[in-house]
Amino acid sequence: MSLLIFYYFLVQIILINNKGSSGEINKLKRENLKVLFFINLIHGMGVGMFNVVYQPYVLEITNSIMITGVLITLGAFIQFIPMPLVGKFSDRIGRRKLMLISMPFYVLGLISLIFSNSNTLILLILGIVFYYLGFIMNNLSTLIFISENSNSSKGLMYGLILFSFFGGTIGGSTFVLLGGALDSRIFFGLFIGILIIEGFINITFLSDKLIFKRHSNLKLIDMSDSQEGIWRKIMRNPKSKNILIFFTLDLFIYNIGLSIYSAGLRDFYFITREQLALITIVFNVTNVIFQIPGGHVADKIGKKKSLILSQFFGISFFIINILAYYIWAGGFTAFLFPALLFSHIPFALSVCTFIPSQQMSLTNLDETRKGESYGIAGLMRGIGFLPTGYIGGFLIENVHYVAPLFISFFGIFFEIWYLSKYFHD
């Protein structure tokens, strides 16, 4: 209860500074951000449960780290490939409506996962497809909705909403930790209940009637007009092109080591689901503490410096994981789990200093078609993400567990060079 009271007053203090030119619109924006704050808090609870149990659940059904990597890649394919179309659809019907449309997809995905087993892999595949379709519709519309409701200090606003999201994930991860004897399907069912509550809150309290400028004349499948035009517009602008290249490169490099990280811990070290939940809690607590300062840092020092700072925290995460393996292999097994826990502190700091700058960059590629341009950016990043699950699984099974970690570690230095040379605020 005290945490919720703290959240409320924090929201009130920060949103007072979110000035706008119109009193009525400004009031509506403040109310929307407060509602989004609460929606992200409870959504984070569901995601917190899902993220802890998802990869081990898939591994349990497939009994293969390679197949698990392929299915994780399928999830990535669904997350990114449809993004330009989803973004255009968002521009056409509005962010709030797209959030509502995402709910049935989420629910169908989770129901399919609940009923899947080793003899019904088709249900597992359908579950992944529907879940991530819901994810991309919800995530894209929420991020742009935050941007449209933020007049100034956008980094701080993203930090605030992500603060609530990661606060919720702590609750979800803690519930998995305490419910160690429960079947993973129970947590999927609880997430469905949370999604129903989210839908009710959206219908009752969110509004975009004074904010969203509709583009109802957009043709969703017509590639000859706006979409191709925005592609050319983005790629002919050196700043926008470099933004896309960097964030695509970043996703590729990091996710070689991270795409099946949880499944790898379970398969290689025999880390339990409860230990994975504790790792997630440490990660999310650090996120909650530093997410708002991370957004403030992005506003103060600029996106480029904030992103470079993020890369150094990322390097720390991979160094600790690599060292943990060699110390564990040397016989000091008691060192492993504390090292894995500690490594997620710099990992969370990397996220806190990365996401606000990322979202400020990607939600403003085109002012008139925010959804479509963000979707195009997502497609480009998805191309970078798609092979990572397969690469990670192949390297773990055929080379060594730490091979993907080494590739990500050295790749980050290339990212820092690219940021320093080509990325501009």
Secondary structure topology:
Blueprint: H1 2-16, H2 23-62, H3 65-80, H4 83-93, H5 95-114, H6 121-148, H7 154-178, H8 184-205, H9 223-236, H10 238-258, H11 261-269, H12 273-301, H13 303-329, H14 336-362, H15 370-385, H16 388-398, H17 403-422
Helix pairs in contact: 1-2, 1-7, 2-3, 2-6, 2-7, 2-8, 2-11, 2-12, 3-6, 3-15, 3-16, 4-5, 4-6, 4-15, 5-6, 5-8, 7-12, 7-14, 10-15, 10-16, 10-17, 12-13, 12-14, 13-14, 13-17
Specify the structural class: mainly alpha
- Helical proportion, percent range: over 70%
Cα radius of gyration in angstroms = 21 Å
What ranges have pLDDT less than 50 throughout 5 or more consecutive residues? Answer: 223-227
- Main sheet record: none
Return the CATH architecture: Up-down Bundle
Instruction: Quickly count the helices.
Output: 17
Report the β-strand fraction as a percent range.
Answer: under 5%
Distance between the termini: 40 Å
Series of H and E elements: HHHHHHHHHHHHHHHHH
Kindly report the average pLDDT value: 84
CATH superfamily: MFS general substrate transporter like domains
User: Which CATH first-tier class would you pick?
Assistant: Mainly Alpha
Number of strands: 0
User: Any idea of the CATH topology?
Assistant: Growth Hormone, Chain: A
What number of domains?
Answer: 1
Shape: globular
